Amino acid sequence: MDTNLRLRKRIRAGDHNAFGELFDAYARSVYNHAFRLTGDWAQAEDIVSLTFLDAWRLRGKVDEEGGSLRPWLLGIATNVTRNSRRAARRHAAALSRLPRDEVERDFADEVATRLDDRAELALVRTALATLRRAEREVLALCVWSGLDYQAAAEALGVPVGTVRSRLSRARAKLAKYLKSTELPPRGGQMKGDRGSAVGPLREDKR
Q1: What pLDDT, on a 0 to 100 scale, did the predictor assign at position 120?
Q2: Which residues, in sequence order, are CB contacts of 186 under 8 Å at separation 6+?
Q3: What count of Cα atoms within 13 Å lies in the side-chain half-sphere of residue 82?
């Protein structure tokens, strides 16, 4: 039996050792994807934990037939990120209603100190901010995580044609933005994939 099929069968059966193997194989990939969507190392770590908790909860929905479970996990991570953002917005709204002297200190500076190549990352995040959420998600899956159209469609639960059109729009918007932006001199490091700073960690793409 194919290795992926055996793993799928074990996951569906609730095999804890199989989940350990799944985590070892794809935690790095989920982490990179989460960081690319959030730009926050600490939040990405939280998303990894929540993703695998959800994966365990949803194990019975894993198809018996299929290849790598990486697209399935990245799809879960995308949904977890969406939910985390909604929760963050609700939290921010609650804080805004408090008297100013009761608001906790801003953690932005603390987070910023943990980011590598902050100037380059800021450029990438500003460029990504020109995209709609759905376009950012497709870009992260297809360009940075290397999923093909079919795998990205399965991860997001949308038709393949939708993935193609969103990716096309995302690329066009980014090209227009980056063409109009004067990049800081960095010895050619910004050539090629301008998102390289957002995904510096090695991951398993099986």
Answers
A1: 55
A2: 120
A3: 12
Determine contact, residues 140/44, Cβ cutoff 8 Å. Answer: no
Per the listing, tokens 């939910």 go with 83
Within 56-148, strands assigned E span: none
For residues 69 and 62, the answer to whether their CB atoms sit within 8 Å is: yes
131 vs 196: which has the higher pLDDT: 131
Q: Which residues of 184-203 are buried (b: 16+ CB within 10 A; e: fewer)?
A: eeeeeebeeebbebbbeeeb
Closest CA to 198 of 148, 144, 152, 137: 144
Tokens of 63: 């198809």
Highest-pLDDT range among 90-99, 122-131, 147-156? 147-156
DSSP reduced 3-state for 69: coil
CA atoms of 26 and 62, how far apart (whole Å): 16
Residues with Cβ within 8 Å of 157's Cβ and at least 6 positions away in sequence, in order, are: 75
Q: Closest Cα partner for 75 from 87, 86, 61?
A: 61
If DSSP codes are grouped into helix, strand and coil, which group holds residue 203?
A: coil
Residues belonging to the chain: 206
Separation CA 139–CA 167 (nearest Å) = 6
